[in-house]
Amino acid sequence: MSLQCGIVGLPNVGKSTLFSALSSAKAEAANYPFCTIEPNVGVVEVPDDRIKVLEGLINPQRTVPTIVEIVDIAGLVRGASKGQGLGNQFLANIREVDAIIHVVRCFADDNIVHVEGRVNPVSDKEIIDLELQFKDLDSIEKKFARVEKAARVGDAKAKVELEILTRVKNALLQGKSVRAVGLTDDEKAAIADLQLLTIKPVIYVANVDENSIQNGNEYVEQLKAAVADENAEVIVLCAAIESQIAEMEDADEREMFLGEYGLTESGLNKLIRASYAILNLITYFTAGVKEVRAWTIQRGWKAPQAAGVIHTDFERGFIRAEVIKLPDYEKYRTEAGCRDAGKISVEGKEYVVQDGDIMHFRFNV
Fold it and tell me: What are 44-54's pLDDT values in tens digits?
């Protein structure tokens, strides 16, 4: 399954620099708004040492990690929901992504113009939130009257939907995002056709200067305080430094560079893992001499669903799954070794796949 995260934020907060560091695609980074006219899409691997372990044990012909697609969406401005700047186009682009990476400027630099004329991370965040909330409110109001009329004449489904829409509408009118309403999965499904923007999970990226990478700064603290009730993660990084790290092909060179800043890993690694986790995703592996591959599934999926990610025939004709835990594979070195040691479990249709499982599916169609 493909996962797509959209990078949003005001112009000149470091979105395109971050995108360039994240992916092999390079967005034009320029010191003026709207330098990204069409959304750039890049592909980045999800950091996972487990696949490297399997690669070292098996020495396969090829290794295929799990990936995340990153979409660099051009900067929104105040009034975007009403079409200001290039608002309508980019708000539409946000509808297509699974999660939002909201980049907030947490550094002062007179050489980089701020579209609002000052550095204020809380205000910047609120501008973006407000534009997305306005757009969601517009979507709900267009549907509200029709659902309300159907509910009035006794349509049971419409009554349920109206109650959900009312709760969501009231929250938006109070300046809250839909994700803060606490909708159940069924309630989300009932209004999924609206493709609401503020229902999407979000990660805040505090883009800081070099001196603030380790301990942050007053801007970061202001941002953290502003999102404290959102149950959202704030990741602190310096996009300019991350772009330098991303260009280093030598692992030792990267490690030495990180060490100079007192870091053990890049901020991008933390960001990608957080993006993966925020959608409640896990990874299982298939492993053989031809290929070691990581597969992305939703946490809680059962074995047939997981098999279907490889091919629909695997799910349709599912018989059983043979499962090895990674620590056992590391200990016994090979699949044959695990089998001899009794460390391969045979699981049926009700088995809930666990993160890191190494699986082989038996099927018949």
Answer: 888 899 999 99
